Amino acid sequence: MRISNAILRGVPGAFLLQSGYGKLGMDSESAEGLKQFASTGVPQFADWDSQTFTKFIAGTELALGTALLTPFVSKRLAGAGLLAFSAGLLSMYFRNSDMTQEDGIRPSEQGLTLSKDAFLAAIGAALVLQK
């Protein structure tokens, strides 16, 4: 594995592991808020039980973070997973008018936390397209 590939995989991998681990013990109220917010991007999540949803998201983040940090997982597979996950996150950003300014692209003050997910999408695309 090249050092540039290790950097592209290491930073989001560690971030996702930390994020997933933090969701494992989430209280019911926070889990419900997370599920409702996620359903703005993926409406089907509104039908899920909040605890089931939180376990699903935590497991997804932990699995994806592990895949990114595991050298024998191909960079294209890990990148495709990161790209798909970040697309879901960006759908919440673009489908929630409070997240963007009037042009629908630039982040509003509330949207800054989600707009950074464009970096995850770019890293995923770079891993998929890398030779």
- What is the element string, with H for helices and E for strands? HHHHHH
> Could you tell me the strand content as a percent range?
under 5%
Q: In angstroms, what is the radius of gyration?
A: 15 Å
The overall pLDDT, averaged over residues, is 91
Topology, number of strands: 0
> Quick one: biggest sheet?
none
* Tally of individual helices: 6
Overall structural class, as computed from helix and strand content, comes to: mainly alpha
Summarize the structure.
The protein is an all-alpha fold and 131 residues long. The protein is 69% helix and 0% strand. The protein is globular and about 40 Å long.
Q: Care to describe what's here?
A:
- With 131 residues, the chain is mostly helical.
- It is 69% helix and 0% strand.
- The chain has 6 helices and no strands.
- The chain has helices at residues 3-23, 28-38, 50-69, 75-95, 112-115, 117-129.
- The chain starts with a helix and ends with a helix.
